[in-house]
Amino acid sequence: MTSQPRMLALTPAYNAEAFLRRTLDSLATPTYPSLRVLIADDASTDATADIAEDYLRRDARFSLVRRTNNLGWTGNTNACCRIQAGTPTTCCLRFMMMFCSRTMWRAWQRDSARGQMLF
To answer: Distance between CA 85 and CA 88 in Å, rounded?
Structure first.
């Protein structure tokens, strides 16, 4: 039996308490066992980190990077991309919820053998 390829969903967030639960719920839904979710809190001043930590306690596939200095959207996203180190990756943003759907995971599983990356 071959192991499934690893998939990392990057979730950069700043003061995201209004939408973060919906995004993380979408990412928690797929049962793809090799999925990992990296939440990058960009020094939020709201409950973003608390919400992320709640998901960490419930699902071992989730991890959190908590920044002490705000890098801005581009800086935080670029820092996330450096962390992924060659792992097939998708980026889940509040305005890109369609990428967090089951359809995306099925398509990624189908295309991963060809080395394609969804972003």
So the answer is: 9
Whether the Cβ atoms of residue 7 and residue 90 lie closer than 8 Å to each other: yes
**Hey, CA dihedral for 22, 89, 11, 63, is it positive or negative?**
positive
Q: Based on the structure, what is the number of domains in the chain?
A: 1
Cβ atoms within 10 Å of 81's Cβ, excluding its own: 14
Classified as helix, coil or strand, 79 is: helix
pLDDT in tens, 59-75: 999 999 999 999 998 88
Task: Confirm whether 2 is domain-assigned.
Answer: no
Domain extent, residue 31, equals 7-114
For the whole model, what pTM was predicted?
A: 0.72
